[in-house]
Amino acid sequence: MPQRDFNDEKDQQLESVRTDAEHTRLTTQQGVRVDHTDDSLTAGARGPTLLEDFHAREKITHFDHERIPERVVHARGAGAYGHFQPYDTWLAEYTAAEFLTDPQIRTPVFVRFSTVAGSRGSADTVRDVRGFATKFYTRQGNYDLVGNNMPVFFIQDGIKFPDFVHAVKPEPHNEIPQAQSAHDTLWDFVAQQPETMHMIMWLMSDRALPRSYRMMQGFGVHTFRLVSADGRGTFVKFHWKPLLGTHSLVWDETQKIAGKDPDFNRRDLWEAIETGDFPEWELGVQLVSEDDEHSFDFDLLDATKIIPEEQVPVRPVGRLVLDRNPDNFFAETEQVAFHTANIVPGIDFSNDPLLQARNFSYLDTQLLRLGGPNFAHIPVNRPVAPVHTNQRDGFAQHRIHRGRTSYFDNSLAGGCPAVSGQFPEVFTHYQEKVEGAKIRKRSDSFKDFYSQATLFYNSMTQPEKDHIVAAFRFELGKVEQTEIRAAVVDHLNHVDHGLATQVAQGIGVPAPQQEATPNHGRSSPALSQLISPVASA
Ligand code: HEM
């Protein structure tokens, strides 16, 4: 049993704002009891409604303001509370983050699973990536691991994210189609951007049709950095493995279920937790020493690449359990705000350009979605770690800051809040040496677009390959422009000639005559045999 269970702390925090309707009497927002809420105050039984009817005005005004913008992506989701606990202390050699290294600490978490492209009311069982975002309420502050159920991403640089999402979302003139994959703009984007090919292979695979959120892997995707108490950096990839194994639906099932029960995945999660069948995941890490940064035949900063587990094994770190459903979907699941830049001492970023853009985007979008700069006060977002800032005012300020000072440095409040302490007691940015000319150019080390797509396809069993072929035929077959279909088939020919031929035959474009030179003629070195010294430690 853990000695220090901070679950209680988070729960107490939430308890202080929970309200129940039972045994209460109806009041206004001001606490004034009302005798009647079914009829407006009118001048005479059939006359006009009076402006002085404060109860009717307040009731309707509040209703008018009930909706907030849905997330620009990942709008549909389901969340749950739980806890995380490391098995062991071994990772302390690499990170100062105590929630990953002290088996005595059980850290409360909130996890939100989501689809990406559909709107808030769309069906669960669509062909899509799934979000797997975890907020750890650690004693050193909130840490958010904002991942997906696939280990790579569509693009390499976040500046392309608005283009990508505009291509994925329903077309702007008629808001059709809701489904992620089956439309011209997505495939037009794919045809223009071969960097998407590895992720497109995942998207056309059964991984895009999870049977249950409880049966999904999760990945941090980017290479992050762990920082040890003595300031040493180690590259890391995060993995979640479900205890129930990884399982998918088949395409035909997803179509039927989407019609009969669009809430299939969220219902499954909710009911499992309600009945005490708590889902579990194991957190694992792949570690790469900084000395090995350039030892791979892909770039560690390229989010379209995995680190093959044969090269760097995944080492287990701890266990995540989800054991409590939220009390209120809007207050908790809708208002939770994850952010890749929410990190704690012992974890830091890499220079992955996709991650760097995300570190800007999440806070920015939440300022709009959650109505201003005070959304960290919303109970689900509030850390269990003490919070003392000099930030003041703003819409919906919930704190009553006492005293005369809200600036640093001051003498009037004894210099508080103080800036003192040493890493890892305080967060200190990892001192990475950076130099170079300011340029707007993708690194050449990012330009192998096909090798890992091939690796993925080759790792599939025959039925899985058949599903991939069928998915490409179904999705690409709906694209109106033959040129786009042919361009995608050409990319597929660089992944696997047989795959490209089968897809072409199913969608009415000429099959490629011969096998393409891998990677458009760029040399594609065999995956190195390197086993990282860190990985084998
Ligand atoms: C939302 C994952 C790339 C911008 C999300 C969510 C997840 C996620 C899981 C939903 C969070 C929730 O449940 O509330 C990822 C992963 C990415 C990626 C794994 C690539 C590795 C990007 C990029 C950008 C971006 C490149 C922008 C440059 C957003 C925005 C939201 C979002 C704006 C909505 C956040 C909100 O409204 O709270 N992403 N994303 N994402 N993502 Fe990403």
From TrEMBL:
Active site: H74, N148
Binding site for heme: R71, R112, F161, R358, Y362, R369
Cross-link 3'-histidyl-3-tyrosine (His-Tyr), sequence positions: H339-Y362
Top-level taxon in the UniProt lineage: Bacteria
Cofactor annotation: heme
Statement: the UniProt record of this protein carries the keyword Iron: yes
Cellular component per GO, a single term: cytosol
Enzyme Commission number: 1.11.1.6
Region entry Disordered, spans: 1-30
Any GO MF annotation of the entry: catalase activity
Domain Catalase core: start-end pairs: 27-416
Keywords in alphabetical order: Heme, Hydrogen peroxide, Iron, Metal-binding, Oxidoreductase, Peroxidase
Biased composition (Basic and acidic residues): 1-25
Catalytic activity, reaction form: 2 H2O2 = O2 + 2 H2O
One Gene Ontology biological process: hydrogen peroxide catabolic process
Function description: Decomposes hydrogen peroxide into water and oxygen; serves to protect cells from the toxic effects of hydrogen peroxide.
Protein family: Belongs to the catalase family. HPII subfamily.
Protein's name according to its UniProt entry: Catalase
Organism: Kibdelosporangium aridum
